[in-house]
Automatic annotation (TrEMBL):
Ranges for domain HTH lysR-type: 4-61
GO molecular function: DNA-binding transcription factor activity; transcription cis-regulatory region binding
UniProt name for this protein: LysR family transcriptional regulator
Family indicated by similarity: Belongs to the LysR transcriptional regulatory family.
Keyword flag Transcription: yes
Alphabetized InterPro entries for the sequence: LysR_HTH_N (IPR000847), LysR_subst-bd (IPR005119), WH-like_DNA-bd_sf (IPR036388), WH_DNA-bd_sf (IPR036390)
Keywords: DNA-binding, Transcription, Transcription regulation
Pfam families: HTH_1 (PF00126), LysR_substrate (PF03466)
Gene3D superfamilies: Periplasmic binding protein-like II, Winged helix-like DNA-binding domain superfamily/Winged helix DNA-binding domain
Domain of life: Bacteria
C-alpha cells in the first residue's frame, strides 16, 4: 500500500461533499476522465473500492465515505501546518505578533490563525512558539500583542480570558502493567512513580504539579524532561515511562491503542487554556479578532 497524493485526496473529499465525480472535477478544473483515473489510482494504492460505478452514475462506497472522512482530517491538518509555518516564518515583521505555549501551538492556534487569515488574507502575522512562562512574559513586556498559555496560576500584570478547556490524561504504552490495571491509579502511586514530563516553565508541568499538590502528595517525580507534548508522547510510545499529557496530544494514539489512558483517583487534571495581554490594554483590530475566533471555536468544541 502506497500513500495517495494530496490532490487525489482533495478530489475524493469533493466527490463526497458534492455527490458526483463530474461536479468534483469541475470544482478542481480538471476533466472528468482525469478525475476518474485519479480515483482509480487511489483505489489501487489503498487496495479498496472507493467508488461504486453504475450506468446511473458514480457514488462513494461505504469504504469510500470512511476514507473521505479521514482524508478531510488529513487536509485540515495540512492547512493548519501551512498556516502555522507561514506565521513562524514572518514573526519578526508581523502586523500581529502572537506567542503560544507548545501544546496550544501544536494543536489549536494554527486553526485559529487560518480562520483569521481567511477573513483577512493580507494580514502579516508572526507566531512565537515557547512555553507558557515565556509566552506570558512576552505578552507582559509588550513583545507580542497576544499570548496563549496553559499555566494554572495567577498572571500578574496581564489580562486574560479562557479560550478553551483541556484535560490532562495519564497514559502508558500497552505493554505497561498499568494498562491492565482494573482499579484507578491512586494519587500516592502516581506521585512516587517517575514520569516523563515537560520542562519547568511548561503549563502542562505546572498543572501536573499543582494537581498533585492539591491532592496532598507533592509534585511529580521526573524520569525524563522533554520540550514538547510530541516529544513526551513519543517517549511514552517508545516505553520510556508513564506521562500525564494533554488529551489533545494523545487522542488518536489512545483510539489506535498505541497508548492506553489510565484513570487516576483523587486528582483533578482539568485546566483552562487562556489568552493573555498586558493589563489595562484594550485589544483591538486583528488581536481582538483572533481572540474572538479562539473563544468561538472553544464554544463549538
Amino acid at each position: 500500500m502506497t500513500t495517495p497524493d494530496l490532490d487525489s485526496l482533495r478530489l475524493l473529499v469533493l466527490v463526497d461533499e458534492l455527490g458526483s465525480i463530474g461536479q468534483a472535477a469541475a470544482s478542481l478544473g480538471i476533466a472528468q476522465p482525469s478525475a476518474s483515473k485519479r480515483l482509480s489510482t487511489v483505489e489501487r494504492r489503498l487496495g479498496l473500492v472507493l467508488v461504486d460505478r453504475t450506468r446511473r452514475g458514480s457514488a462513494l462506497t461505504p469504504d469510500g465515505r470512511v476514507i473521505a472522512g479521514w482524508a478531510h482530517r488529513v487536509l485540515s491538518e495540512l492547512d493548519g501546518l501551512l498556516d502555522g509555518a507561514e506565521a513562524l516564518r514572518t514573526q519578526h515583521e508581523a502586523h500581529l505578533r502572537v506567542a503560544a505555549s507548545m501544546t496550544l501551538a501544536e494543536y489549536l492556534v494554527p486553526g485559529w490563525i487560518g480562520e483569521l487569515k481567511r477573513g483577512d488574507p493580507g494580514l502579516y502575522l508572526g507566531l512565537e512558539v515557547t512555553n507558557s512562562d515565556q509566552a506570558a512574559e512576552m505578552a507582559r513586556e509588550g513583545k507580542v500583542d497576544l499570548g496563549f498559555v496553559e499555566s494554572p496560576g495567577s498572571l500578574p500584570g496581564l489580562s486574560s480570558r479562557r479560550v478553551a478547556t483541556d484535560r490532562l490524561v495519564l497514559v502508558v504504552p500497552a505493554s505497561h502493567p498499568w494498562a491492565r490495571k482494573r482499579r484507578p491509579v491512586t494519587a500516592a502511586e502516581l506521585a512516587i512513580t517517575p514520569l516523563v514530563v515537560r520542562e519547568l516553565g511548561s503549563g502542562t508541568r505546572e498543572t501536573v504539579d499543582a494537581a498533585l499538590r492539591k491532592a496532598g502528595v507533592g509534585p511529580a517525580k521526573p524520569l525524563l524532561e522533554l520540550g514538547s507534548a510530541s516529544a513526551v508522547r513519543n517517549a511514552v510510545i517508545a516505553g520510556a515511562g508513564p506521562a500525564v499529557i494533554s488529551e489533545l496530544a494523545i487522542a488518536r494514539d489512545v483510539a489506535d491503542r498505541r497508548l492506553v489512558a489510565v484513570a487516576v483517583d483523587g486528582v483533578d487534571f482539568g485546566r483552562e487554556l487562556r489568552a493573555v495581554w498586558p493589563a489595562g490594554r484594550r485589544l483591538a483590530g486583528p488581536a481582538a479578532e483572533l481572540l474572538s475566533i479562539a473563544v468561538r471555536n472553544a464554544k463549538a468544541r
